[in-house]
Amino acid sequence: MERKSPELLPGTLDLLILRVLARETMHGYGVAQRLKIISDDVLEVGESSLYPALQRLLLNGWVKAEWGASENNRRARFYTITAAGRKQLNAEREEFHRVITAIQKVLETA
Amino acid sequence: MMNLIRRVAYFLRHRRAEADLAEELEFHEAMVSREMEQDGADPVAARALGRRAMGNRTLAKEDARAVWIWPWLDSVFQDLSYGLRSLWREPGFTLVAVLALSLGIGLNTSLFTLFNALALRPWPVRDPHRVVTVFAIAKNPPKGFDAAHGFGPVEQRYLTDHSKTMAGLVLTRGEGGLHLDAAPKTRVDYTTGNYFSLLGVDMERGRGFLPEEDRPESPSAVVVLSHSIWQNRYGGDPSIIGRRLQLDEIPFTVVGVAPEGFSGTSPELTEIWLPMASAILLHPNDRWARDFLNNADSCCAQMAGRLAPGFTREQARAELSVLHADFLRQNRETGNGVLLAGTPMLQQPHRETRQIYAILGLAFGGVMMVLLLACANVGNLLLARAAARAREIGVRLSLGAGRWRVVRQLLTESMALAFIAAALGLALAWYLPAVLFQSMVGEVSFHLRPDTTVLAFSVALAAFSCIVFGLAPALHATRGSFADALRKQRVGAGRLRGLLLTVQVTLSVILLAGAGLLVRGIQRAQKLDPGFAIEGVATVSFDFPISAYGGARMNAFFSGVEQGLRELPGAPKFGWTLIEPLGSGRRMAGTHLPGEDEKHSRPILANASSGGYFDVLRIPILAGRNFEAADRDRKVVLINQAFADRYFQGQSPIGKNIYFSDPYQIVGVVGNASVWGLEPVEPCFFTPVSFGSGPRLMVAQTPANIAAITALAKNLDKRVHLRVTPLRDNFDRWLSSSRLGAAVAGMLGILALVLASIGISGVFAYVVQQRTKEIGIRIALGARPANVISVVVGSAGRSLAAGLTLGLAGALAISRLLGQYLYGLSPLDPVTYTTVIAVLALAGLAATYLPARRAVKLNPVQALHYE
Which of the four pLDDT bands, split at 50, 70 and 90, describes residue B132? Predict the structure, then answer.
């Protein structure tokens, strides 16, 4: 059975992808795998949200894409974070912290 | 912004992008199933999972693609509906803006429609871009003659037989007036037998000509009708094919009807087509037709051809040049190669082409100025609106809307305005050029309706004007902070408005001055002394079937008329002339003077007339004598004063010879008369007219005279048609196109004036509104109305003065271009300039009146409560 991935806050997936790509250039499948492993299988991202998110990042100029050979020698599209993308990542990260802290505060004290 | 560029780039290569996405998703799926197999899942289950993933994949693709499109479309719709709503809320502004813009865009589009028809639209034939017009270049053309000329049928056959680069060549040659059944003056084009098949014209009925119908040794009496003549004169008769018609009283058989929308390949509308060789049938008594068809040195029919598959225009030009040179060498002549041009009229090398381009250029300058004026006006109105909406925009900006986003929203509104105006402008262009051109020139073969090229032009124009009138106000409105907006302070608004006002005044001075000069030029031309009698004189032309008349019969007919006129009671004065005064005919003869050889010959206007011509037209004989009856067989010539002044400075020309083919002795000098046109009189000469050339009769237009002449002519030959044209009609027709030009210019001028007045009054009204508080305080402190008005006017006075100065300078510079359309009026005509300035000053005053009155009548208490 396929487990349903938890619903993310809007925009969070973009942030996570940027964070993963900030470490190294990767193809889409790699990004999904990486998210899954790091989050201990909690975040399982399907194609139908992963690829629109990647297109969104492309549109905003935060990542760029290039075709290359994958580890098993197939043609795959690799995504690299751009300077604008890094800037966006930092900004979003702070914002995310602020929001999460706020939410936690509400959850704990309200 | 970058975002938009990436989006556009995505759309431009969306096929590639979608293929990328599909491949990427496939890769993803392959990786997933590989992983499952590695995890030990059995292949069947893996495949099932793969199938399930399929649906996933489609969804993913759709969603990923939508990222590029939906948010954008959505926001465009949002902006659009917001913009339309805000336009709807201010109907007054919207109406004025749309009206001004649609006039500006409409006039430009109309002119472009004309330009498109003359210079861009190819002939309406199959695959028109492979069809070229072909011209021979003369080696040493006489000055004033076109170097490019046409070909004769003999050479056309030679070139057709030898050329490999052309799939075929056609010749056409127009002839003015044949009698079709009873109706005279049917416009005919003679064409080679391959005309319809080579050009690829899909006949409405029947067929085009066959090559064997166009043999000089066995010409066929067949005819193709135009669609309009088939409809109008034969009521669209479905059994027209095979019907016998009388052309100049010679029976012809209809073999085809051309399709609607094909009105020939010469600028004039063609009504019927005949095979080239049938000229022999129609001119049985005339050597001309046989010579034209059979002599190698005949020339000057228009040639066109279709490039053979695989050959370029340049290859064809090179080959035809060689073949043309070979052909000329066989006939011991030389030329200067050939030239290939496109089929639209203005792409062909005619002498008038340059002049038409010059007129079109002037006209484009005028209508472009009207458009800019309209844009400046709308820009000004938008600025005023932006001021009124400053709070709204300020709030939006401070709520976090990006500046670019607000600018985009404002521009979308402008774009909506511009496109509504463009749609109305296209509607104008649908009627204006066709109607104007028809009243000016008559029926022509050009397609004078907007097509897709025109549509593209008007869309580009709308986008252009939107940027011109919308961008600056939009940028301006979004400048500064929310706090500024609330304080209602807009830095620099005055400067931008002042600039726009200057532009408006400048443009309207130029347009008004140009229009004024043209109108005054026409007034002057109407009072012009043409140097000959116009009132009460008429030209009588005799039309008879050319087929029935050779030189000998013509001679007999006209001698008979002359004899009869001499015997009339009262013996009215009459004269003969080959070319009627102020008609459309112009005849030049290559002429040289004593002491020059033939190489120096220059084209000089030449008419042939009898002595009576000068009596009837009251052109004085200044020296020597008039023609007498015996001159008809002598080689003698009369020259005009302009000829004597230019070529015999100071000396008496009487008794000297001038040469055109033969020497002609000058026997007299006649006064200058504008018989060729209302331009300054050029040198011209007159030779004795021969009756064989079919001259026209000049006579005083009294009912008795006309009745007597009609009776005389009908008595001699029943088939003769008489046409009586009062010289006044010719004179008026000569001025009509200039008059139309002046009327159009006048309309542009008035339009400019109205637009400028709206602009000026808008600026003043705005100043009053903005300074209401200040004015109120001044009034409360006891300021007199004059002080208040000076506050209002003073603020815009400098822009007005700058506009007037710049406009005058521009008008003085540009007026020189109008020189040849002014009929001798000085381009610096002081009356025009004084009037223009007075009119603009008056308009300025009128435009100031309402706002100024409002300012003076302000109640100080209310004014201080304002806001």
Answer: very high
How close B69 gets to chain A, by Cα (Å)?
10
Q: How far apart are the first and last CA of chain B?
A: 37
CA B677 to CA B617: how far, in whole Å?
15
Question: Which residue on chain B is closest to A29 by alpha carbon?
Answer: B28
User: How does the average pLDDT of chain B come out, rounded?
Assistant: 84
Tell me the ipTM for this assembly: 0.80
How many whole angstroms separate alpha carbon B170 and alpha carbon B133? Answer: 9
Nearest to B671 by CA among B648, B627, B639, B641: B641
Is residue B444 within 8 Å of B269, Cβ to Cβ?
A: yes
Q: What is d(CA B169, CA B194) in angstroms, rounded to the nearest whole number?
A: 8
Of B158, B317, B181, the closest CA to residue B245 belongs to B181
Question: Is the pLDDT reported for residue B161 higher than 90?
Answer: yes
> Under an 8 A CB cutoff, do A29 and B7 touch?
no
SS3 readout for B394-449? HHHHHCCCCHHHHHHHHHHHHHHHHHHHHHHHHHHHHHHHHHHHHHHHCCECCCCC
Option in B2, B27, B66 nearest A76 (CB): B27
Q: Which residues in chain B have their CB less than 8 angstroms from residue A47's CB?
A: 25, 28-29, 53, 56-57, 60
Q: Do B832 and B742 form a contact (C-beta atoms < 8 A)?
A: no
pLDDT band at B522 (very low <50, low <70, confident <90, very high): confident
Least CB-CB distance to B3: which of A60, A74, A75?
A60
Q: How far is CA B342 from the centre of its chain?
A: 18
Residue, of A9 and B296, whose pLDDT is higher: B296
d(CA A3, CA A5): 6
Would the CB atoms of B20 and A56 count as touching at under 8 Å? no
Which member of A50, A59, A77 has the closest CB to residue B67?
A: A59
Residue B501 CB neighbours (<10 A): 25
List the single range of A41-50, B472-481, B665-674, B691-700 with lowest mean pLDDT.
Answer: B472-481
Cβ contact, residue pair B68, A54, below 8 Å: no
Q: A 35-94 residues with CB below 8 A of B?
A: 46-52, 54-56, 58-61, 65, 67, 70, 72, 74-77
Chain A positions in Cβ-Cβ contact with residue B34 (cut-off 8 Å): 72
Q: Which residues of chain A does B23 touch, with a Cβ-Cβ cutoff of 8 Å?
A: 75, 77
Give the pairing of strands B636-640 and B662-670: parallel
The verdict on pTM exceeding 0.95 is no
